[in-house]
Amino acid sequence: xxxxxxxxxxxxxxxxxxxxxxxxxxxxxxxxxxxxxxxxxxxxxxxxxxxxxxxxxxxxxxxxxxxxxxxxxxxxxxxxxxxxxxxxxxxxxxxxxxxxxxxxxxxxxxxxxxxxxxxxxxxxxxxxxxxxxxxxxxxxxxxxxxxxxxxxxxxxxxxxxxxxxxxxxxxxxxxxxxxxxxxxxxxxxxxxxxxxxxxxxxxxxxxxxxxxxxxxxxxxxxxxxxxxxxxxxxxxxxxxxxxxxxxxxxxxxxxxxxxxxxxxxxxxxxxxxxxxxxxxxxxxxxxxxxxxxxxxxxxxxxxxxxxxxxxxxxxxxxxxxxxxxxxxxxxxxxxxxxxxxxxxxxxxxxxxxxxxxxxxxxxx
Amino acid sequence: xxxxxxxxxxxxxxxxxxxxxxxxxxxxxxxxxxxxxxxxxxxxxxxxxxxxxxxxxxxxxxxxxxxxxxxxxxxxxxxxxxxxxxxxxxxxxxxxxxxxxxxxxxxxxxxxxxxxxxxxxxxxxxxxxxxxxxxxxxxxxxxxxxxxxxxxxxxxxxxxxxxxxxxxxxxxxxxxxxxxxxxxxxxxxxxxxxxxxxxxxxxxxxxxxxxxxxxxxxxxxxxxxxxxxxxxxxxxxxxxxxxxxxxxxxxxxxxxxxxxxxxxxxxxxxxxxxxxxxxxxxxxxxxxxxxxxxxxxxxxxxxxxxxxxxxx
Lengths: 364, 312
What we know:
Largest interface: A-B, 47 and 44 residues
Order of helices and strands of chain B: EEEHEEHEHHHEHEHEEHHHHEEH
Structural class of chain B: alpha/beta
Shape of chain B: globular
Largest sheet of chain B: 8 strands, mixed
Largest sheet of chain A: 8 strands, mixed
CATH superfamily of chain B: P-loop containing nucleotide triphosphate hydrolases
Number of strands of chain A: 12
Strand content of chain A: 15-25%
Number of helices of chain A: 12
Distance between the termini of chain B: 38 Å
Oligomer: heterodimer
Structural class of chain A: alpha/beta
Shape of chain A: globular
Strand content of chain B: 25-35%
Helix content of chain A: 25-40%
Strand order of the largest sheet of chain B: 6-7-8-3-9-10-12-11
CATH topology of chain B: Rossmann fold
Distance between the termini of chain A: 16 Å
Number of helices of chain B: 12
């Protein structure tokens, strides 16, 4: 696209430690993320990789024992009269963020719709709450808007449902309500933290389509946190792969899926069950994610990496640039490194995916 | 050991009904007239959305519920009615369950060795402390944990490791049938793969049959020999994994299959999943009868519906 894109969120060099009784846990170690207006960025990684913590920092809702060591989170938005404004979230206090950012300009959809809704309030009240608090919308107007929103997220009988309590709704409906609440104040940025992990595949497909439709209609930006690469393939424009508090590979969607460079990304892609092959065994990444309580020198992924070099145990790899948008943090990309190809099975699979894509008349 | 289809089925469920009476005028028909068989050494995958009754079937089979009607035969004995004491003992050792959430299903106040060894303790399956320890260590090694893990508590493990403890607990009594109720749904994708591979290895080694309950068809495909698709308490379609995936007949099965996101962004971006709604579909499950498609592939519907499904 030729037109200059408007940058909405710019996270730079974010570094967060949690003080725990067992010692400091270095959860985020230098994360950079850019997000432009109307685009979708996905953050992918295993549990404990720091994807949720990063976005909680952007919302200013980190737990009390967190220490921000360095970094900036710049969020750009427009005032009601249209004047642009750029703030560093990390320098603002919680009260200010509550008043000006949370819900109003940045809204979040959480993983489990049972725990993120208030069980003692009707869903109508919960949707109206934000509008009344942020914009002092008159009750009747807020009510009408809430009914509109419920219709928008695909809930039938919206008027009747307004008086329901969360336990009267099914899991998929509850997540629709959570999305309606998030949309109630017209945010510029929607953060979806594993919005479909607690749901069935059929409901998942519907919720994802809902988020995509809403995004298109409203032109908002979405950050998608997930560990499911199938979901990523459906929604994202750009992908950040996170491991042990660092982004190990970032790129646009085609680069990550058709030309992955980091061994961890290879592992994640290979571990996806593939409906088209008859392999007896699934590929697995050996071991489990590292405990960030004990920091080791070198690449955090090295112990699980069958392509690890000697150097990986000594020095942490920097981000190597592959194209304008694509970069990865692995020593394998260093010009002096031995030439290592991705596993043959994955290569075959990518070749097949490319062919399928071509056959459908799309170009890469 | 490959599945043995010639001999007696290890589990035969005939016309199982499981109703829950909510009030005098309202009864939930959680499972309605479901029949299937599981043969020794085979994995039967039961799929469906939440509320379709798949977990209820698992719980009825292991007799956590008393079935309303129907016959459940396990290893030659009828277990759907009142069970005798000796049958009950056999049932409790030969059929085991792995639960969904490994954090909620492991007692947080017990050490792993006591969680795993509880079955041994109850059935007095050892003659000395050292034999007990030896048995527990052997099971731990089988599921990929080290002997030193036995003196730890569940909270000291990661999610994948906890599920291994759950599997070890199910394996200790050498069961003939393991009911795995959504045992991988709470895990990360890469850890899911580890657990599924582990379960396959164990089946090779011990020849145990699995009733694998899940809503994620892509993982079910990897582990199952045969699949049953369940919706609103009705078993709509059954067949071998290949038959179901190559030629899904029922619209509900088709919608389940098309809901699986594929990791191919160019295709996936332009694809909308087939949707299916029972209320608007005009189908009536209660009128359906089993129709033969091919091989062991059956679909439950009326004659007229069957023509419509297969005409496509």
